[in-house]
Amino acid sequence: MTITYRPAEPIWCAGCGHFGVEAALAGTLADLGISKEETLILAGIGCSGTIQNNLGTYGYHALHGRVLPTATGAWEANPELTVIAAGGDGDGYAIGMGHLIHTFRRNPSFTYIVMNNGVYGLTKGQNSPTRQGAASLDAIHLGLSVLETTFIARAFTRAPEQLRNLMAAAVSHARDGRGFAFLEVLSPCVTYNDTYSLWVTECLDLDTDNEHDPTDRTAAFGRVVALQAQGRTPIGLIYRDPTTEPASFANPAMSDIEPTSHIESYMYIRNRYRT
Ligand code: SF4
Ligand code: MG
To answer: Nearest CA to 155 among 220, 211, 204?
Structure first.
């Protein structure tokens, strides 16, 4: 007999930002009328990697740093699913960084939510790549620098309405087949790196900034870099490619398969899994 353990309550510390992410995700799925049965949430390793346990959708706990290739495979196998990958900054920006770059480049049509708190919370607060002082990694810069990216946003759990709006925009973008939707959420770890008050001071909302044009990649890149030099952290819709059309599951990942005769074998295997 298989026994499945499903926590009734999230296992996070009281005050953890991840509660806000989960609430926004649950609200987004409800707002968009997406049923549990047509949703797959895959998570990486870390405190954030338990989010899929709490939402009642299909869920999958991927290997450390491997949530993106796993989500790509799930989306390939059943593009009618609403596929949402989630994880932390340690999982996604350290061991998983190679996958992030190539997922930006391939532009598969699913959503990726990264809960950034600057630390590895599950293993007691070691610094992650986003907490390295002047050498900190900024995934927004990275995403803007990859020309295939179509949706890049950052939210903060202290601004829950904006978080929910950005999450709905991200999930809709991916669900419509417009490409990879990347949403970083500043989600403080109250136990090892409580950044609530710091981020309240540092964050600057681009959604209410008339100078920011989220359809202009070059300008967005310049603005984000300039703000960072001023010690500010931009949140809001950073960039959305205005030219993307609903792609009805066009498969950019296929362009990586060589020689082309292998595509036939690939399609055969994939279709076997679909039937
Ligand atoms: Fe959240 Fe930090 Fe607690 Fe993990 S250790 S549940 S990230 S507050
Ligand atoms: Mg973390």
So the answer is: 204
Amino acid at 252: P
How much distance in Å is there from the Cα of 119 to the middle of ligand 1?
9
Q: How does pLDDT run across 137-150, given as a tens digit for each residue?
A: 999 999 999 999 99
Strand ranges of the sheet holding 39-43, from the earlier edge strand across to the other edge: 58-61, 39-43, 82-88, 111-116, 181-186, 151-156, 233-240, 203-205
CA 42 to centroid of ligand 1, rounded, Å: 19
Using CA atoms, how far apart are residues 182 and 174, in angstroms rounded to an integer?
9
pLDDT in tens, 249-267: 455 555 666 777 777 887 7
Q: Distance between CA 195 and CA 262 in Å, rounded?
A: 49
| 225 SS3 class | helix
Which residue intervals of 57-109 are DSSP H helices?
67-77, 89-90, 97-106
Residue of 77, 62, 18, 36 whose CA lies nearest to 253:
77
